[in-house]
Amino acid sequence: MKGWSLLALACLLAAPGYAQGPADASLALLQKLADAPGPPGAEEPVRAIMVPIMRPLATRLSYDGMGSVIAQVGTSGPRIMIDAHMDELGGMVRRIAPNGTLTMQMLGGWLDQALVDQRWIILGSKGPVQAVTGIRDIHVLPAEDRTKVFPRDGLYLDIGAKDAAQAASMGVEPGDPVVPDAPFTVLNGTDNYLGKAWDDRIGCAVLLEAMQRMAKLPHANQLFFVATTQEEIGLRGAKTAADLVKPDLGLAIEGGITGDVYLGHPEETQVKLGAGPGIFLYDTSALPNRKLVALVRRTAETKGIPLQLDLVQGYGDDSSAIQESSGGVPTLNFVVPVRYTHAHNGVVNRGDFDRMVELMVAVLGQLDQRTVDQLRDFSPQ
């Protein structure tokens, strides 16, 4: 990314609102990952956090042609792909208007009502540029329009520039990535963490901690810990990474969707914050391998880990791209519950995260060639 350096990232992370001196390593990791800017196609700052942790633990570390990180642990046994995506919802500058405002191309599944009057960071050639999507003033808005949603095509990024020339002098031009400006916060002393990009930085953190633990444990597999790119615009990195890994089994780690705030819609989602990790029995993009579901449920019960089951429409994840690779791969999507996904501010629970790491490590410890062969066996019994 032109001009976007680790120094600029460090300046952003040192800005007001970025808590200093976290109490433990996991909290520090979650904070860094959540605050790092990384919209689809511009995941460099996230990769810069993850690779230094992955490289010393890996038997071999490589990249696919779209920037996904593939860290292999072990050289024999079935090929297990553990996946989390680095990118977050964001946008890119479309054009600079004569008055110095900018239009934005959205990247990922944004709701229009989540875009108005929000702060953003543009990753320009001279470093981060702060911006806000404005809002028409209530004093001039016709009464009949006051309850309407402002469409995205009518929104502009205001960077304070008086004209196009001043905007350009700030290092902004079409194609520059844009991310939400929503710093990490421990929510009022609770075990809940407020921040952006939990979809899927929470999965990235689980992947890293599971990799750290598995590097110290005996196992009978070739584990491929894969941090993918461009999930939010079509599961693209998972497709290209799976082409290289050629997995025998795929485990995706995602941010789930909670149903514990906006009640009255029980068919939308059943997961609750703080009630443990979950797995998807269905989403719009994939049906999991039923025998793999049973194995995970047994493992969770044996380890005393609470496990939530969910079925969600209008949701796609990397497991479906892995599932369709190499002639068909048994897969399952694991989820850490997240409130308010696909918006500036989401909430996760620390206990859910910790238990997901425990569950992932326990599941990986159950796998060997015989077990994977059984999961892949569809012959009539």
What does this entry show, briefly?
By secondary structure, the protein is of the alpha+beta class. It is built from ten helices and 17 strands.
If you had to describe this structure to a student in words, what would you say it looks like?
With 381 residues, the protein is α+β, with helices and mostly antiparallel strands. It folds into two domains: 6-88 and 184-375, 3-Layer(aba) Sandwich (Aminopeptidase); 90-180, Peptidase M42, domain 2 (Elongation Factor Tu (Ef-tu), domain 3). Helix content is 28%, strand content 23%. The protein contains ten helices and 17 strands. It has helices spanning 6-13, 25-35, 44-54, 164-169, 198-214, 236-245, 290-303, 318-323, 350-366, 369-375; strands at residues 60-63, 69-73, 79-85, 90-96, 102-107, 119-124, 127-133, 157-158, 177-180, 185-186, 192-195, 222-228, 249-255, 278-283, 308-312, 331-336, 346-349. An eight-stranded mixed sheet has the order 1-2-12-3-13-16-14-15, sandwiched between helices. Helix 2 packs antiparallel against helix 5 (198-214). It is globular and about 70 Å long.
